[in-house]
Amino acid sequence: MATNSIRSDALEPTRAELKNASFATRLTRLLAVYGLPILTVLLIALFSIILPDTFPTVLNLRSIIADKAIIALLSLAAMIPMASGKIDLTVGYGIVLYHILTISLQTMVGLPWPLAVAIVLALGALVGLINGILVEVAFIDSFIATLGTGTALYAIALWHTGGRQVLGSLPHGFLALNGTMILGLPITGFYVLGLAFILWFVLEHLPIGRYLYAIGANPRAAALNGIPVRRYTVAAFVASGLLTAVAGVLLASKLRIGQASVGLEYLLPALVGAFLGSTTIKPGRVNVWGTLIGVAILAVGIAGIQQFGGSFWVEPMFNSITLLVAIGIAGYAQRRRSAAESQINKRTAA
């Protein structure tokens, strides 16, 4: 029987709760919701004061956006199945194959770049469909299923490249996908904002979003209420696979070469961003703006530490510690939610 890898419950306080609560209680509840954005702002202010010549500059902002846009896209991709209570590890493995294939189809096969991109996006959606079928039809836990699928994708990438770089002349139109600047900032930042707005609207204002959150909170109850759990969970994996392929295409445009050694390092920070997102704005439930804030605090923290002269191992260490903290906070939030629900059920039964 399938198991839920992630629960998805919201803990944001209602207006009625805040109105009737004491000042200390209101402050505590609001800090739980907005503590991470506040911490991000404080870190920016701190590093700007300590590093006035390098941190609060347009050049640093461009560097952060260019460096973390791919991670932000992968975090959003990972967030979608998380909303339905599942996890997708292929966001870290798939990007390896997708960026290599995007370049290979142009340099080795000679396809026009729009067709090469379309094929890679279709492949990403297909991989997502396979993941969804493995989880919802074969009843394999999402962690195991996507780990197996992702490892297979990575193996295919290694086989295709033979451990060598994929090189070749790429058209200007393809390179412009990542290299264009808008208002002095990398276009990839605007891609992230555009996709974030779309996902936010779908998850917060359309029935499909409410269905995914209901499935993530309690799939059995969602099924009893007439929600087609299998269909929407599979759709979540397809969307995740498609968005991962988009990140792969942009990575190919950025690097201009394909190599199997690049990509896996994105898995951990992508998951960190998604898990951190479930601890803020709507604590206990993954959400779009929380995810972007999670990526932002990673970007700000790592950029500041590196400008202090941090060694090469600082970034993976920072990511791993942050992931553990985020999972701990998310677990605590879920336990609070379960305790609150139990109290409500007892009062209702009485």
Overall radius of gyration: 21 Å
Helix content: over 70%
Low-confidence stretches: 1-11
**What is the number of helical segments per DSSP (H or I, 4+ residues)?**
14
Principal-axes geometry comes out as: globular
Summing up helix and strand content along with how strands pair, one would put the structural category as: mainly alpha
N-to-C SSE series?
Answer: HHHHHHHEEHHHHHHH
Strand order of the largest sheet: 1-2
What is the mean pLDDT? 86
The share of residues in extended strands comes to under 5%
Number of domains: 1
The N- to C-terminal Cα distance equals 34 Å
Number of β-strand runs: 2
The major pleated sheet works out as:
2 strands, antiparallel
Write the SSE topology.
Blueprint: H1 15-20, H2 23-50, H3 58-83, H4 90-107, H5 113-136, H6 142-161, H7 172-179, E1 181-182, E2 185-186, H8 187-205, H9 207-217, H10 219-224, H11 229-255, H12 267-277, H13 288-307, H14 314-349
Antiparallel strand pairs: 1-2
